[in-house]
Fold:
Amino acid sequence: MIPIAGLVIGILAGFVFDVSVPLELQPYLPIAIVAALDAVFGGIRAVIEGIFNDKVFVVSFIANVLIAAFIVFLGDQLGVGSQLSTAVIVVLGIRIFTNVATIRRHIFHA
Amino acid sequence: MSLLNDLFAKPLDPGYEEAAARRRAAGERPTSRRTWRSPALALGLVALGLLLTMAILQVRNTASVVSSERQGLIEQIHNEDDRVSRLQDDVSALEAEIGELESNLLQNSTAGQQMREEVETLQATTGAIAVTGPGVVVTVDNAAEQSAEDGTDRVLDLDLRQVVNGLWSVGAEAVAINGQRITSLTAIRSAQDVIQINYRPMSAPYEVSAIGDPRSLARDFGDSSGGTWLREVASRSGIYYDIDSEESLTLPAGNTPLTIAIPGEGS
Structure:
């Protein structure tokens, strides 16, 4: 329940405080979200499999977000930003799908 | 493909496995109890929710700004259009008023009436008022199938100039192209592949209407410079042209404002 409460608090905080992202960081926001999703689903799967670790989760969360944003930034500088975004999304998307599928199997046994 | 295989086989961060193995080796449970209540996981989800909301709000705001900007521009265009048509109405009302006042003034005496007729003839010649009469319409159109890369199978401004000159030379008294009266101030020129007459963009087909004796105009135009030019261009590049006699043509008044030049010799 606590993780779900955290998600709700985060969403509410976003609406209440109405934080606006600086213009230069806007292109990296969607990629950062996908990276964060990957880390969160990985964490949930680890919890279910009984091997969750706070430190690993925090480090993977922050590192995922920063590296994904950095790759896109680098791509923008090299003129291949959209291609590298696609690459990041494909890799993280595959991981998210596989992790969510495992979580689903653990929960529903199907 | 081993990278992709890796991705499918081990989607979970290997760090979890390693940390659990270390704890097992140290004789502890692989993970602390009650991992669902881990503050790190909760914080991560708070961050995720925050990021999501920020991104969604951002996209919404941008979209609404763009659409409201477009709405503003559309409104502006409509307003300016309305203003232009209002002003044009004003202009024609004022012109009608001027004409009426002139005839009222000149009607009173024979000399005045003579002068009024003279003024109207001059206005008709210069294109300041609309004229009606019999004449011919020369229709010029682009080639039916446009294949030439360099656009030589399209009507050029030069072709229209030749047609207009040819019509003048065989006795046309007033000429208009697609409803634009040709006056002494008219320019027939092309800008970026679009022919402009009186600085208004025109598109094919071009109808060059000329008032004059329909029989002699139609007969002589073929031998004039314009007719020869058209024949040559048509045979070379497939441009279509046609000459029709008309019982009655009405050519509109041209736009001939003089701002610098003052009528008369001055003193």
The longest helix of chain A spans residues 81-108. Chain A touches chain B through 53 residues (CB under 8 Å). The mean pLDDT of chain A is 87.
